[in-house]
Design a protein that fits this description.
The chain is built from 8 helices and 17 strands. It has 350 residues and is α+β, with helices and mostly antiparallel strands. Helix 2 packs antiparallel against helix 3 and helix 5 packs across helix 8. The chain is globular and about 60 Å long.
């Protein structure tokens, strides 16, 4: 990090020069996302010292208890991004409807969907939490932005990323030209480039899933996780189980080391539990730009066409070979693999 010492702002300007179609206002918007992250980070690291831990007493649109830090993060992002003049509309996991830009602000050409504080149930336990964001082009042409602007397939994203707050705070983003990670240096108040051009390994040896839901899984998911635990040196099994319960933390670890994260559909949540717009689509873009894959078990996540702001989906993401194997089991097509060949050596044409 000290060798390159490139700040996020410098990196964005460099990327703008290398990609002439990039707009200056788009770069400005990403810079303001970093500013919002710094504001949230300031409160996260002080959370045990100030009156910002615990619940607000309210519930969000999903029936979940709203943490004080949830509300702070949501308000900080809205306040900072809403005043840039770059946005037509915002949508948040915490809000039932879209969020218009503040009165008196110009209406811009971009849309931001965001999860202000992923993993907030872990706040009181001092476990890694994060912010996830997605930037889309506005598609309506008159007046303020609408829900239609927010309900776009992930493949139309202009940028996506996340901020992870923990022992160090990192911002990871992509604009469709690779994935880059920046670590926050508190003494400078800057995000510095620490992980340029992140590439996820083609195969990992880590699986991340909430096995407490095992009894509710489909048979295909059960067989896949059981298969991962089997001792087989030729295929590199068993795999190690690592599950934090904070999506950003689990995703970030597997992005660096390789592996697969699963939150499959089950009897309790037949449509899955993670939200397309605020969690799955932005992380899918990051994964694909790093050489990984993201699927609902059948379809590419970035091809899903959401029909509601809080639509959910099953989610598999990580190393491409691991995701493909998981799909085969979930689709119950692994039986098509001949008995004398190993799954990781087989190419299946769908």
């Amino acid at each position: 990090m000290t060798r390159q010492a490139l700040t996020l702002s410098q990196h964005l300007l460099q990327m703008e020069r290398e990609h002439p179609r990039a707009k200056g206002e788009f770069t400005d918007l990403l810079s303001h996302i970093a500013l919002a992250a710094k504001t949230i980070n300031r409160e996260v690291v002080r959370a045990g010292l100030v009156d910002i831990l615990g619940y607000t007493g309210a519930e969000n649109v999903h029936g979940e208890k709203v943490q004080k830090l949830d509300q702070f993060a949501r308000d900080a992002i809205y306040r900072i991004l809403g005043q840039t003049g770059q946005l037509a509309v915002l949508a948040s996991e915490e809000d039932e409807d879209v969020i218009p830009v503040p009165p008196g602000q110009p209406v811009g050409r971009y849309v931001v969907n965001f999860d202000p504080l992923d993993g907030s149930s872990n706040i009181n336990a001092n476990v890694n939490i994060g912010t996830i964001f997605s930037i889309l082009p506005r598609i309506t042409t008159e007046g303020s932005g609408t829900v239609r602007d927010c309900l776009q397939a992930g493949r139309r994203q202009l940028a996506a990323g996340y901020v992870m707050y923990g022992s160090s705070t990192m911002l990871v983003y992509t604009t469709g030209h690779g994935v880059h990670g920046f670590t926050f240096e508190p003494s400078l108040g800057e995000f510095l480039l620490s992980h340029p051009d992140i590439r996820i390994p083609a195969r990992g040896r880590i699986y991340s899933v909430n096995e407490g839901n095992y009894a509710h899984w489909t048979e295909g998911v059960k067989r896949y996780v059981d298969w991962l635990k089997m001792d087989d040196r030729e295929t590199g099994r068993p795999h190690s189980s690592r599950y934090v319960g904070s999506l950003v933390a689990d995703f970030h670890r597997n992005l660096l080391y390789g592996g697969v994260f699963l939150y499959p559909a089950d009897r309790k949540s037949p449509q899955g539990k993670l939200r397309v717009l605020y969690e799955c689509a932005p992380l899918a873009m990051v994964a694909e730009q790093a050489g990984g894959s993201a699927s609902d078990g059948v379809r590419r996540i970035l091809d899903l066409e959401p029909t509601s702001l809080h639509e959910k989906t099953p989610f598999l993401v990580g190393s491409p070979q691991d995701v493909r194997e998981a799909e085969l089991f979930i689709q119950e097509r692994h039986q098509a693999v001949t008995a004398d060949r190993r799954l990781n050596h087989v190419r299946v044409d769908l």
